[in-house]
Design goal:
Elements (H helix, E strand, L loop, with lengths): L9 E9 L3 E3 L3 E13 L2 E9 L3 E8 L3 E4 L3 E9 L4 E10 L6 E8 L11 E9 L4 E7 L16 E7 L8
Parallel strand pairs: 2-10
Antiparallel strand pairs: 1-3, 3-8, 4-7, 4-9, 5-8, 6-7, 9-10, 11-12
Length: 171
Amino acid sequence: TTVTSRIDSADLQITKTASVSAATVGQTFSYVITFANAGPSAAADITLTDALTGLTLVRATSSVGTLQTTGTALTVTQASLASGGGGTITLTVQVSSGSGSITNAVSITSTTPDPTPGNNTSTTVTSRIDSADLQITKTAGRRTTTMNPTHDDDTTISATVRKKKPNRSRA
């Protein structure tokens, strides 16, 4: 008598794309995450995680599984993902204050062995652009109704620059 053991394996795959390559502080944009199981077996107890460093989560939707969110992270869980099955998650995020690029990674795991774990994480890099909402007010030192360019008529003009929104920009 020969006993043959069956070893399940499920090749999970994930990709993440951003709607922009650069964003300013306060700007919203979206990510689309797609994941799939290339088999040959069903993937048991899948967990997809995404920590949104440098971002605030505005909205998230998932085509499959149970979606749990906080302001800066999300998790999708599902009991089983059939071979050939998959799903899509759409995120709307807002850029938080800070400096440097935003590197964001999403990963997917399962209790079923994965023969190709190198495609279980997807990373995107979005450039963070500093900006400021500046307001300039100009006032003249004296009131003049007519300017005559042939006379030496000095007029003093002063400008006040105020930053309306907090940011790291320098006025």
